[in-house]
Amino acid sequence: MTEISTAQPIDAASAPTSGRRLRAGTQVYMYVSLIIVAAIVVVPLISTALGGFKTLGELRGNPFGLPTEWQWSNYTDIIVSKRYWLQMSNSLIIALLTVFLTLTFGAMAAFCFAHIRFFGTDYLVNYFLIGLMFPAATAILPLYIRIRDLGLIDTYWGVVLPQVAFGMGMSIMLFRNYFRNLPSELFDAAFVDGCGYMRFFWHITLPLSRPIIATVGIISFVGSWNSYIVPLIMLNSESRYPWPLGIMIYRGEFSTEWQLVLAFITLTILPTIIAFFLAQKHIIAGLTAGAVKS
Amino acid sequence: MSANAAPSGNTIAISRRRKRSLTSSKWPVLILFLPPALLLFTVLVILPMGEAAWYSFYNWNGYGSPTQWVGWRNYQLIFRNSAFTQALINNGLIVLASLCVQVPLALWLATMISSRIKGALFFRLIFFLPYVLADVAAGMIWRFVYDGDFGLVAGISHFIGVEPPFWLADRNLAMYAILGVVVWKYFGFHMMLFIAGLQAIDKSVLEAADIDGATGFQKFRLVTLPLLGSTVRLSVFFAVVGSLQLFDMIMPLTGGGPSNSTQTMVTFLYNFGVTRMQVGFGSAVGVVLFVICVTLAFSYKRVFMRND
């Protein structure tokens, strides 16, 4: 899979414009449409959060509105429970390790592909691009057996390493394109000054690569934070479960008490929503542009 | 010799010599920088895929080594399995829903947000929000929405005074309910693709249409839409790839049921290969999925995206 020429940098900050001012009628029509769609997006989320404050009985009669009596204990019981924090920290550890290795290994390999001509460069690049073409699910059973034989079942590494391996194609692709577009004068200057490849990588390439590091980092963090199938296959102990597995277990345990499940869902997606609103510009640009370019 | 001491007329020759000495020192970098990625990728992506092809000819429970050779039997079993046929149909339905609902919706919203309208950034933010949520969380939220006892669907039904339907428990409705969640979760991503596509359109073309007296709709149909062709093809490509991977969202919603009506290829692989630890059969499903993924990716790029 190669670069697609439609790839445009997505500028999340500036609203694009087209020509003349809009007529009042058109504006009303637009606002009504946008608000209806926004409501369809937001109502399930808000009802989930509010549902967590209700009793089961009230949920049955009044799934939409505000709770008559706010059941704070639904939330506080979960917040003070060990399992919530354990699952969150499991997810965080797995995601941070995944991001770190995806960035390091990807940037290092991409640097070789971008700057050094050696026998078989193009074949090797295409070899990594095979990884972009199929999801981890296709090879999940042999992958499970491999991880088992390596003795990594039920460890963080058993989840991290497959995630890194399947992220390699994306990471190398994005880094290589970026490295190749850095001005070549930098290179010539550094070479004339007797700078070796290693120092060039460390002192010139990496400091100039912050945007692409952010993009690859965001893609692999979001992917790992939300990932379900790899941890589902590789982990057995509940004490190591990341939160998406935790939701499923929790729902299995409290299947008759929707209000608790709703509170649990709300608390587990809260970090994502907060992070999204704080860094929306970077997250939208990273996820969209990254997907388009790889 | 040092470059600093060289007379200025000689710098080209020296830089060339420098370069040569650098090319001879490229090996330490290659030896240090390439192997981690190469090793990890080979051991955990390429080898497992090759092993899947090998295991797929055996009947094996995953312990010891595979000995019971069954030839093409696993593949025959797959294509004779009605749940797999249903999974193929469902994957097709997801692509169809993307073509008929998601692309038009995303394009419509993108044109509105790209026009000079206040609050565009706010709406863009809201519409993208479902995309960053985990599929599992989205599935669980919609399981609540569709719940006929406690969910929003129940609330609406009571409000208009009808018996609440149990969409996820009805084998004729469950897949359509899931298609709704897929569109809800992913339209924001596709909308961003179209916003980027609209930004790339040369404004002078639209101004020329204005001068020629084109109406808003004519401008859209005759100028904007043809120029967005590559974005449409890209958007459909992502929908196809995404449909082939769909798993996380199905598990909390229906798990593939009722009576296999909502299986996708990956849930089929999980329910029939992984949970029963049928490594041979599951690997064969993986190989079929791999072949479909690679064929679609290649032929789609070749046929529809060769000029993009």
Can you put this structure into words, describing what you see?
The complex is a heterodimer of chains A (294) and B (308). Chain A is an all-alpha fold and 294 residues long. Chain A has 2 domains: 24-77, no CATH class; 82-293, MetI-like (MetI-like fold, Orthogonal Bundle), CATH 1.10.3720.10. Chain A has 14 helices and no strands. Chain A has helices at residues 24-51, 56-61, 72-79, 82-115, 121-129, 140-149, 156-181, 184-192, 197-208, 210-225, 229-234, 243-253, 258-278, 280-293. In chain A, helix 12 packs antiparallel against helix 13 (258-278). The N and C termini of chain A lie close together (7 Å). Residues 1-19 of chain A have low confidence and may be disordered. By secondary structure, chain B is mainly α. Chain B has 2 domains: 3-71, no CATH class; 74-303, MetI-like (MetI-like fold). Chain B contains 15 helices and 2 strands. Chain B has helices spanning 11-24, 26-33, 35-55, 73-80, 82-114, 120-132, 135-146, 152-160, 174-199, 203-211, 216-227, 229-245, 250-253, 265-274, 279-303, and strands at residues 58-59, 68-69. Chains A and B meet through helix 1, helix 2, helix 4, helix 5 and helix 6 of A and helix 1, helix 2, helix 3, helix 5 and helix 6 of B.
Summary keywords:
heterodimer; A: 294 residues; mainly alpha; MetI-like fold; 71% helix; disordered N terminus; B: 308 residues; two-stranded antiparallel ribbon; 15 helices; 72% helix; globular
**Radius of gyration of chain B using CA atoms only:** 27 Å
Number of helices of chain B: 15
**Structural domains of chain B: how many:** 2
Question: What's the CATH architecture name of the largest domain in chain A?
Answer: Orthogonal Bundle
Order of helices and strands of chain B: HHHEEHHHHHHHHHHHH
- The percent range for helix content of chain B is over 70%
Largest interface: A-B, 113 and 115 residues
Count of strand segments of chain A = 0
- The secondary-structure class of chain A comes to mainly alpha
What class, by secondary structure content of chain B?
A: mainly alpha
Topology-level CATH name of the largest domain in chain B: MetI-like fold
Q: Into which percent range does the helicity of residues of chain A fall?
A: over 70%
- Classified by CATH, the class of the largest domain in chain B is Mainly Alpha
Oligomer: heterodimer
| Approximate strand percentage of chain A | under 5%
Number of alpha- plus pi-helical segments of chain A: 14
In order across it, which strands form the biggest sheet of chain B? 1-2
What is the H/E string of chain A?
Answer: HHHHHHHHHHHHHH
